[in-house]
Amino acid sequence: MNEIGKKIKEARKKKGLSQEGLAESAKVNLRTIQRIEKNENEPRGKTLNLICSVLDINAEDILDYGKQTDKSYLVIFHLSVLAFLVIPLGNIIMPLIL
């Protein structure tokens, strides 16, 4: 939640808009914009979409929900190399056991 207000504030400043200008363009109350930027409130769906459309940014970029780097595939990838060692050893050991 802390990042949403900060990102909206940065995007608004890049665009050269004041809080009043953003509120007027997005048809949102000025106090709502102030609360969002101070991280007192988190914008709801429609409000967030209105603000993002004025700022020409994607709402998904602001939210960052579920954006986590998953590196578990690297462990599996590295362990798969060991299969090339185990299979030949199995071909030697299994006939000895049998």
UniProtKB/TrEMBL annotation:
Give GO MF terms, alphabetically. DNA binding
Q: Which organism is it from?
A: Olleya namhaensis
Query: Which terms are listed as keywords in the entry?
Result: DNA-binding, Membrane, Transmembrane, Transmembrane helix
Protein's UniProt name: DNA-binding transcriptional regulator, XRE-family HTH domain
Report the Pfam families cross-referenced here: HTH_3
Tell me the ranges covered by the HTH cro/C1-type domain, including all copies: 8-62
Question: What lineage does the source organism belong to?
Answer: Bacteria, Pseudomonadati, Bacteroidota, Flavobacteriia, Flavobacteriales
Q: Where are the transmembrane segments?
A: 73-97
